[in-house]
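The protein record quoted in full:
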Amino acid sequence: MSHHMSNSYALLLGAGGVYAYAKKSSFPSLIAGLGLALAFGSSSYLIMQQKHFQGHTLAGISSVVLLGAGLHRYTKAPKSMIPISLIVLGLFSSYYQLNKAWEWKDSV
């Protein structure tokens, strides 16, 4: 069941990247959104294949990247809701995924 969070993030970030590109022609947002969607989708696949440590580690690293992207955007536009949303999602997912990876570290 823990792969559902990764699937949700993959869908959300992929759609967000496509939306940003469609609305503002932001090619970097498209690449970042689709890249992170691919990483979260891959982590979900690994978790479903019973490779929990690897899957949660990949999702944790992707979450830290998401958090970093949100912080970077926040410095440029502190009043915008998008960077704040990225920061909150990145913090929540980093905490969850890295804790799950820690739980599964001995199963490798």
